Amino acid sequence: MALPGLLFEQAPPISVPLRFFLVAPWFGVAAALMLALAGPDSLASRWDPSAVAATHLLTLGVLAMCMIGALMQMLPVVAGAALTRPNRLAWLIQPPLMLGVLLLAWGFTAGRTEILLAALAPLALALFAFVGVALSAMASAAAKNATITAMRLALAALALTVSLGLLAAWTYAGRTGLPLPTLADIHLGWGLLGWIGILVVGVAYQVVPMFQMTPPYPLALTRSLGWLMAGGPAAFSLGRSFELEWLTRGTTMILFAGFALFAATTLRLQRQRRRPLPDITLRFWRVAMVSLLASGAVWLLGLIAPPIAASPRQPLVLGILWLMGFAWSAVNGMLYKIVPFLVWLHLQSQRPPRGTTPNMKQVIAETATRRQALTHETALILLLAACFLRQFFYPALLVGALSFAQVGANLLSAWRCYRLHVRRLSQGVPASSP
Amino acid sequence: MTNLPPERILDARGLEPPEPLERTLEALDTLQPAERLRVLLPREPFPLYAILDRWGYRRQTEALPDGSFAVLIWRD
């Protein structure tokens, strides 16, 4: 007889990943609110302090928050790598991460370096603790595949991103004499292309075939992309540090080509899926892949036409396409698979009588997720338009905030559904689903 | 010849998650004490292991050459 308690801890309690998912969308609302308060000039340049603050609310508050929650769930489930004391770990990571992001955003917008510097310790604690624990758990992982390799690479890229970010913040506060633009570029190279890019690609290898019922990604693609993504950000950093323009440009071109190949392959696989039924996650993933292709095109345009590369709008368009279009669409879509699955799984593990608990599709109302997908797509278009036309600034933020609030409400409804059924099961009340 | 306990086979490859898990749990509900269940799955089912361990089932996993997995489930 196995030791049930011990082994069940392979999967963390549902509250561990959910606490990350439930708070994440509200940082998106905060980002929109902050930009609205700063006014339309905040989208004039990527160096605007409010734009930098909003970017970190999105990358750390929304994306890293979801990705950490998802990894804490996925490491044991996909990789067979058990996290010790996941509950305590969540407490160690989430409160300092939330505090750090808010202080960072406040420090940037208020132009107060002492607050900016105060954000660094909690951020470093949360993110380094997470990377350390996740990498050591993966060292003993039972499974070996392209996703595991990508997760390791992504975690290493996150550690580098954080280290460079700390250094950039010190430099911003005038504590080092390092060149800030170079440092910031290398920081965002590792963050956007490394951590976010590699993680989404690596997770896609598992979840696209699994949930969208497509054929697997070709082995030749996953192998060559693995090498490219390991070497790409490193070569980019070298090129940028030593001002080797040919290396920086060459690497970015190859990297964007690699990501474009990944996006095109994903779209092709999705057309070959075995059950061509409408699916909300698929819709989000298509937006993500189209945004990825579009960001490659915008980058390429900059190389062909120097006025485009010189325009302050190009990095903003790229940032919106990469963060909101590619990364957030993919994560937003995945949340609608992960969260209902977790609710379903944790209810099943209590062995309810047949037909008394909801199935996966009943956990979050489909009409609500479809409505949010439409809001998200509208927000994305309006945000891109706002890079060029000021009159779209407030409508874009309003719709963007609405979209994040809808995600927040949808995830909350899943949590309520879970609580309701747990209560009914513990009271022995037969409940009709959902 | 040894007398192996009767074995039921459930092929859950090609189903959309969480259907493979759903079908497996359904099959367990009707599994006779002397019976064993062999489930064919598209990938290694770590969440299923957690549930089986919790419910007190024994299990044995075999990786098949085509990349899928066979999990044999029984009670002592």
Rg of Cα set of chain B: 12 Å
Q: Please count the helical segments of chain A.
A: 14
What is the count of β-strands of chain B?
A: 4
Distance between the termini of chain B: 21 Å
Rg of chain A (C-alpha, Å): 21 Å
Assembly status:
heterodimer
Beta-strand percentage range of chain B: 25-35%
Order of helix and strand elements from N to C terminus of chain A:
HHHHHHHHHHHHHH
Q: Helix/strand-derived class of chain A? A: mainly alpha
Q: Can you summarize the main beta sheet of chain B? A: 4 strands, mixed
Number of DSSP E strands of chain A: 0
Q: Name the poorly predicted regions of chain A.
A: 1-9
Low confidence ranges of chain B: none
> Biggest sheet of chain B: strands side by side, in what order?
1-2-4-3
Summarize model confidence as the mean pLDDT of chain A. 91
The main pleated sheet of chain A reads as: none
Please, could you describe this protein's structure?
The complex is a heterodimer of chains A (434) and B (76). By secondary structure, chain A is an all-alpha fold. Chain A is built from 14 helices and no strands. Chain A has helices spanning 4-8, 15-38, 49-79, 86-110, 113-139, 146-172, 180-212, 219-241, 245-271, 280-304, 306-310, 313-348, 366-386, 393-427. Chain A starts with a helix and ends in a 7-residue tail after the last helix. With 76 residues, chain B is α+β, with helices and mostly antiparallel strands. The mean pLDDT of chain B is 88. The two termini of chain B are 21 Å apart. A four-stranded mixed β-sheet of chain B has the order 1-2-4-3, covered by helices on one side. Chain B has helices spanning 19-29, 46-55; strands at 7-11, 36-41, 58-63, 69-74. Helix content of chain B is 28%, strand content 30%. The interface between A and B is medium-sized, with 27 and 23 residues.
